[in-house]
Amino acid sequence: MADPTLPSEPPPSSAPALPRHVEELLQEGVRRRGQGYRGRFAPSPSGALHRGNLRTALLGWLEARLRGGEWLLRIDDLDTPRNRCGAEEAILADLRWLGLDWDAHPLRQSARRGLYATVLAGLRGSGALYPCRCSRRMLADISAPHGPLAVYPGLCRNRDPAWGVRQGRLPSWRLALPPGAIVWRERFSQPGCLDGPRQVGDTVVRRADGVMAYHLATAVDELAMGISDVLRGEDLWSSTGPQVAVMAALGMPPPRYGHMPLWCDADGQRLSKREGAEGVAGFRERGFDAAAVIGELAASLNLVPAGSRLSAAELLGTLQPADLERCLRRPRPNDPQGAEPRQAELQHGVAMDAHPARDARI
């Protein structure tokens, strides 16, 4: 059933000139949102799914099924050095074991590099991008001793826009954000609004090593796949601003977003790294079968009593859409814990840490 709260046409903008087939692909995706719910789960094959990923997958699957919509699977595998051999196969096996079936064939970002490059060329041709030669060390020196640099200060914005190799390095490319607010519809977390220049900063859309940046690829895929609702962890709330900015530069409206509370212990504290990293293998080592894992995931949001054992399909049969809304709409701090360091990494291409369990960006 069509959702009247979702825009069916992109807002007026000075969108870049894209090849006709790419423009039609993006516009068709936006139109598809109006035909019904369409969600996605988008893990990175940098390691096994941890318990937070598993809960996000379950909730996304439940909402899609409760709303009579589709739940798609996308493998965010562009960052090749972080990919781990066998991780994708393990992700698919874990989802199947839990009874979380997806619609259509899984989409792999590594197979869509041509699409991202075409969009990048269009943005660059429109004057929306500029080359940036700031190194990791330079940005680190600027930010010290004040902590991670969350907003790029625009050092290269008005410099000579040279494309070529200098001192053995190619530039990264940044999207120059105009003044004003970046706004999106947020369902569960703090209001979806960030000041572009002050809180987001000019966003990297292609890294200096030639890899298409997370924000560009994600924005293009949410549009092209016709995603109506993005459900993911609250620690990715601040990543929404750059992605919505890319969509706006393409003249396209964003989907709705729902940033879900992170898994906390009985005292309301975030799980430790050891606890949070546990995945299906850890559950199975402790003697859990699939029904017990589904019960554990659902009980963490008070959807069922602690100790429940039931399949995903059985859980689905006990719920209404309002039940998910109720358990996910909870008061929370204004600044999601862990968002600033992660945002700095994604904005500047700086690998500030390398924790595979946390790098399944969904």
User: Given the helix and strand composition, which structural class is it?
Assistant: alpha/beta
> Mind describing the biggest β-sheet?
3 strands, parallel
How many helices? The count is 14
Tell me what portion of residues adopts beta-strand conformation: 5-15%
The separation of the N and C termini measures 26 Å
Radius of gyration: 20 Å
Question: Uncertain segments of ≥5 residues (pLDDT<50)?
Answer: 1-13, 332-360
Q: Secondary-structure element order, as H and E?
A: HEHEHEHEHEEEHEHEHEHHHHHH
Give the overall silhouette: globular
Helix share, percent = 25-40%
Number of strands: 10
Cross-sheet strand order for the largest sheet? 1-2-3
What's the average pLDDT?
85
For the structure shown, list the relevant keywords.
single chain; 362 residues; alpha/beta; three-stranded parallel β-sheet; three-stranded antiparallel β-sheet; disordered N terminus
Gist?
The chain is α/β, with parallel strands linked by helices and 362 residues long. It is 36% helix and 11% strand.
